[in-house]
Amino acid sequence: MPNKEILLKTTTTWDGADLKPSKIDNPEVTVLKITIHPHERLSMHKHPLLNVVYMNKGVLTIATKDGQEKTIKKGECLTELIDTFHYGRNDTDEDTELIVFYFGEKGEKLSIEE
Questions:
Q1: Sequence ranges of the domains in the chain
Q2: Pick from 30, 46, 42, 15: which is nearest to 96 by CA?
Q3: How far apart are the first and last CA of the chain?
Q4: Cα(82)–Cα(51) distance, rounded to whole angstroms?
């Protein structure tokens, strides 16, 4: 019998905002592997669609424009913010690797730069 472990089951984003019901007429799933190098910071951006992050390696701090922060490390998951500007940063001396699962309309942008 295989072992199963729930990594994430939630009805909110990491900042506590409720996930909103959405109808997807032409669904598209995109999975990205993103590597953030030591002491690198991503640009300020937001996601218009639901996405879930799995930390495959390292540590990542996510920060919003209003100063909220969340740090996740290898083996942890979180539901990303939707339509809220934020950025991720790697404050360590090692690469951080994320696997991000995006769920939305076919052709929809995955993120929007500020």
A1: 31-108
A2: 42
A3: 48
A4: 8
**Tokens 């939707």 appear where?**
82
Q: What is the pLDDT of residue 22?
A: 83
CATH, domain 31-108, list 1.10.10.10, 2.60.120.10, 3.20.20.10, 2.170.190.11? 2.60.120.10
Contact (CB, 8 A) for 108 and 58:
no
Give residue 1's pLDDT.
87
Residue 20 pLDDT: 86
Eight-class DSSP state of 81: P
- Tokens read off for 33: 């592997």
Average pLDDT over residues 21-48: 95
Digit-coded pLDDT (tens) for 78-89: 999 999 999 999
47: three-class secondary structure by DSSP? coil
Amino acid at 97: E
Calculate the dihedral angle through the C-alpha atoms of 22, 54, 9, 84, rounding to the nearest 10 degrees.
-40
101 has pLDDT over 90 = yes
